[in-house]
């Protein structure tokens, strides 16, 4: 029952909250779509944190798109076998994940440690910042540590199929039963963050 809730019901609740929340905010509170600018208060940490975060997050998102959305058989047809894909996902993914994590650490430290930036931040700014930091950390942990401990685990045979099935309304919670806990935690936190972004 818990599996059914976490991997079938909760994703749809989060997606609905995300979509309805954004529509409601667009219609009734357009000016709340962004955090207040704090660039004039402190620039150095913002500059480096922002550069590192964006330099890392774009390849991370592209890697997730390839891993979750594109079936393994399509990549094999293009000459990318399992071994080559796994090396790219673990090593290249780890490098860009760590770059993203360093950027998020700088941005979070800036928001929490510089008094004027903290004063300008709303509670939701801080919550979203911490959620993003947690997501990036869990993603790095899942990629680096879990892949070292369970190198035979292939998320394209479980998580990817579950993820794609969500969008055709036939999710299978059983696919997530044997998934290592670090990957489950990372995806659970991402689902919660989806809800948070809608009300942020």
Automatic annotation (TrEMBL):
Keywords of this entry: Cell membrane, Electron transport, Heme, Iron, Membrane, Metal-binding, Nitrate assimilation, Oxidoreductase, Transmembrane, Transmembrane helix, Transport
PANTHER family given in the database record: NITRATE REDUCTASE PRIVATE CHAPERONE, REDOX ENZYME MATURATION PROTEIN REMP FAMILY, RESPIRATORY NITRATE REDUCTASE 1 GAMMA CHAIN
Record-listed heme b binding positions: 54, 64
MF terms in GO: electron transfer activity; heme binding; metal ion binding; nitrate reductase activity
Enzyme class label: oxidoreductase
Entry EC no(s): 1.7.99.4
NarG-like domain mapped to chain residues: 3-184
Predominant localisation class: membrane
Bilayer-crossing regions: 6-28, 48-72, 84-108, 120-144
Subcellular location per the Swiss-Prot or TrEMBL entry: Cell membrane
An example Gene Ontology biological process: nitrate assimilation
Source organism per UniProt: Staphylococcus gallinarum
Cellular component, GO annotation: nitrate reductase complex; plasma membrane
Name recorded for this polypeptide: Nitrate reductase subunit gamma
Membrane topology: Multi-pass membrane protein
Pfam families on file: Nitrate_red_gam
């Amino acid at each position: 029952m818990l599996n059914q809730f976490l991997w079938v019901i909760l994703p749809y609740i989060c997606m609905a909250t995300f979509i309805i929340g954004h529509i409601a905010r667009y219609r009734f509170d357009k000016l709340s779509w962004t955090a207040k600018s704090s660039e004039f208060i402190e620039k150095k940490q913002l500059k480096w944190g922002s550069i590192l975060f964006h330099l890392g997050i774009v390849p991370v998102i592209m890697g997730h798109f390839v891993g979750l959305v594109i079936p393994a058989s399509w990549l094999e047809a293009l000459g990318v076998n399992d071994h080559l894909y796994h090396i790219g996902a673990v090593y290249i993914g780890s490098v860009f994940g760590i770059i993203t994590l360093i950027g998020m650490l700088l941005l979070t430290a800036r928001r929490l440690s510089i008094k004027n930036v903290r004063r300008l931040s709303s509670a939701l700014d801080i919550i979203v910042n911490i959620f993003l930091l947690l997501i990036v950390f869990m993603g790095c942990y899942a990629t680096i540590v879990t892949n070292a401990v369970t190198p035979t685990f292939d998320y394209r045979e479980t998580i990817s199929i579950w993820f794609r099935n969500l969008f055709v309304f036939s999710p299978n919670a059983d696919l997530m039963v044997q998934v290592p806990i670090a990957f489950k935690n990372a995806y659970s936190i991402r689902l919660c963050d989806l809800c948070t972004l809608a009300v942020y």
